[in-house]
Design goal:
By secondary structure, the protein is an alpha/beta fold. It contains eleven helices and 24 strands. It has a four-stranded mixed sheet with strand order 1-23-24-2, with helices on one face. Strands 3-16-18-17 form a four-stranded mixed sheet, with helices on one face. Strands 5-6-4-15 form a four-stranded mixed sheet, with helices on one face. α1 packs parallel to α2, α1 packs parallel to α3 and α7 runs parallel beside α11. The longest helix has 13 residues. The chain is globular.
Amino acid sequence: MAVTTHSQSRTEPWIAPLARGPLHGDVSLPGSKSLTNRELVLAALADGPSTIRLPLHSRDSALMVEALRQLGVGIDEVAPAPGATPNPYGPDLRITPAPMHGDVRVDCGLAGTVMRFLPPLAALAVGPVTIDGDPYARKRPMHAVIQALVDLGVDVTDDGGGAMPFSFTGTGSVRGGSLSIDASASSQFVSGLLLSAPRFDEGLHLTHVGERLPSMPHIEMTVAALRARGVRVDEPAVGEWVVHPGPIAARDVTIEPDLSNAAPFAVAALVAGGTVRIRTWPTATTQVGADLERLLPLWGATVTRDGDDLVFDGGVGVRGGASLPGLELDLSRGGELAPALVALAALADGPSEITGIGHLRGHETDRLAALASDVNRSGGAVHELDDGLRIDPAALHGGDWAAYDDHRMATAGAVVGLVVDGGDSAADAPFGQFDESGVRVRPH
């Protein structure tokens, strides 16, 4: 199967490998995107320099770094401290706060954390700021951010559609106070406001008024990061937060591995069979990827801790003849795990319903429509629900898998490709090695 990535630099499909035997994987993950971009914002607003160790180096984090630099924040690459673990993915970062200025145009790319976290921070700068991103980013939900800025006294100019691009002129301060928003489309609306709230004149008393609030662990992550820097955050009720005005402490912080990005590797053990070891899995975390330790045993995986690592054992796997059950899952806590788990459910012998993920329609792409389209193009039977997907058993075949410029869609295609043979792979491939699969991952 070929996965098409739809990137500016890659137009040819990537041929997903076919597993010819069980895996024996050992994976060291890069840093958490969610934690990296939260800590970058807090460090930019802190009362002194901070060092972020083992940060993620990716397009999303690079866009955040560039946006902060445009606003006047000093960000330098530094060598690891003596005796510290070096980051194989890139240097540590030293962030030095400075008075922020406007006259900038922020490029958010497709990064939800940039487009939702930067505007409240940039409103504290002095001067005009424009927020924009990739063409598809202009379709992503932004009304709650724009309306929140207006309600906080920021003069925002947009086309009336509640989306990018939009502009405002910062005055160096934001009033703050009481604010109600509907964050049903993304928990990032809440996190973006909470992160900058200590620097608002009156802090922030934020209340969510929508019917649902997805991805609560991400908000818990934000609150924990604020409290770790000495900010007082009260939670008087579910969906209500009070951030008191005051300084944000400078702090050196080490970023945890990105546990959500462990999903395709851990799922691969159930598909191809064998074991996958994820290095330095934290014993306590606010990351939703930690739910993999609970979810994958529902499909038959054995999960054990070995020192600092977590080991996922898939037994013989689908490739070895294992039968995966159909499941009913509510992923409202962590919808980012859905693409890998939908790929797994598409290989199960019973029907599955994965719900609590309606908000994924507003992610890097409409992930519900994209998953249904990709699996069905491969011979599957996926139906969209109001709040999720129903996946019925079907015999999958090789073909094109569109990635839509979305890494989670690409890795979902790679998972399916482990056991979907296009019929042209060598029959005598060595056991335990990979051959060309029938899955071709294409950009779009």
